[in-house]
Write the structure tokens for this entry.
Amino acid sequence: MRYIDEIDIKGKTLFIRVDFNVPLDHYRNITDDTRIRAVLPTINHCLEASAKVIVASHLGRPEGKPVEDYSMAPVARRLAYRLHKKVTLAPDCVGPAVDRLKKGMKRGDVLLLENLRFHGEEEKNDPEFARELMKGIDIYVDDAFAVAHRPHASVEAVTHFAPICVAGFLMRDEVHYFHKCLEDPARPLAALIGGAKISSKLTALINLLKHVDKLIVGGAMATTFLKAMGYDVGKSLVDDKLLKVAQDLMATALKKKVKFYLPVDCVVADRMDKRAETKITPVQEVPPDWIIADIGPATVTLFGEALQNAKTIVWNGPMGAFEYDAFSRGTMAMVHKVAESYALTIVGGGDTDVALHKAGEFQKFSYVSTGGGAFLELLEGKKLPGVTALENWAKRNRNAL
Ligand code: ADP
Ligand code: MG
């Protein structure tokens, strides 16, 4: 894969695919602009080279037609504020009006295209739509790691039409840190996995067994393993179809000498509610009809000891239903433990990201991925279409740059 700082972009017309799928409130105010700030280094790099910068993204799920609520207008305003620069919002992402705007651009101009998903062709990876998007473009820059697992027109098909295709700085960091954590880690390498997407995360665990020295499982993920070991887990969140997979995974871990850790105690609740009755019990003593909602204090100590000598820690998924204060202590405690460690710490996952912010420790992690779904697919060992498209372009054009 080639990167934006390897090529001459002076005065060129660039199309930067970003992920500006920001959260909006009822009045369509942006409640968190992390995703906008994450690509400023790439956009500023282009502006410093006096390039003509066209930026494109999707927002929400307009399902192939223009929907006022999903217009990029709020994003255009915030981007202008962050860049200290005028940002023109195009009325669409393709078509004659956009072509005119593209033609009229001067060096150092920023044009934000309207929502890519106002066209159904985007999600269908339609080549004609991709060709339209690339009209008048000298260089395609992919800086949208969070959609790299989606084979969409502005991610995949465009790489067959743009003269030059490179990755931006955010994409570079994501790929680099992921490589540092799984392919070429400082050892011992420990993975801490929690959360609730049990089936896809089990696939991730199977893949992780090939790479890690220690596998530590908490959250609702752990409950499926506890049940697979024969414990009564009451009414806890469990995927019964996966009990056999969980058993096989534990056997494989033993065979491969991967150290495997499960909670030894838990916070149980009589219902998932903020007024629920709660208590702390060993995993052997979960009352029937109660729910495991968090890891307990002994588990926090155990997991902390297991992480002590790790040189690399990769973390995805909270340790409990941390949205409720009563069930957030396990996750908060683990945030502090991982934050205090001397390891390279890499975190992915939307809810895990929220937990780091809630604990006020976000800044203490080596790297926090901007792509929840894409990060999980990497953990699962899958190839991301967005990354593959850039690699293939580089292969086809080995001598172009
Ligand atoms: P991420 O977004 O970080 O990848 P997930 O989406 O897989 O994480 O899981 C986060 C969700 O898991 C949270 O909403 C949390 O409430 C839930 N969760 C974690 N542990 C439990 C548990 N023991 N019981 C029920 N829900 C849980
Ligand atoms: Mg989530």
Notes: The chain has a mean pLDDT of 96. The pocket of adenosine-5'-diphosphate (ligand 1) is lined by residues 194-197, 219-220, 237, 292-293, 316-318, 320-321, 323, 349-352, 372 (CB under 6 Å). The first strand starts at residue 13 and ends at 17.
